[in-house]
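Appendix B. Chain record.
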Amino acid sequence: MATGIQVVFDCADPDRLARFWATALHYRVQDPPDGFTSWEAWLADAGVPESEWNSASAIVDPDGAGPRIYFQRVPEGKVVKNRVHLDLNASSKREVGSDEGRRRAEAEVERLRSEGATVVRPGGEERGEYWVVMQDPEGNEFCVQ
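Structure tokens predicted for this chain:
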């Protein structure tokens, strides 16, 4: 049996980054515990100071297939290129190097730009695959292909 994983992002603003990635991945912000209508209500009930309410956030795949992604606030900013990144597959494997695959990838790039992502390297092609290197609102690199 495979080991389950959770992907973790260190960041300055967990709520903002969680909402960006929820939109990017078609995930949703994780629901608060049973009996609470919001995370704020749960945090207040747990006695967490309001200044700490944005210290973490998480998103989940609504279909339950993908890993939970957790965002934790850290004091230091991103300094160097991240060594692990996500590839967002906007097109099917069969279409990745085709005109249709390129069109789908570019449409996804524009959607993510409207959500706060930036293009680092415009579309490139290698070995029949097309991709665009982007950064999320806090500078974490990812690719759209």
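Further analysis of this model is presented in Appendix C.
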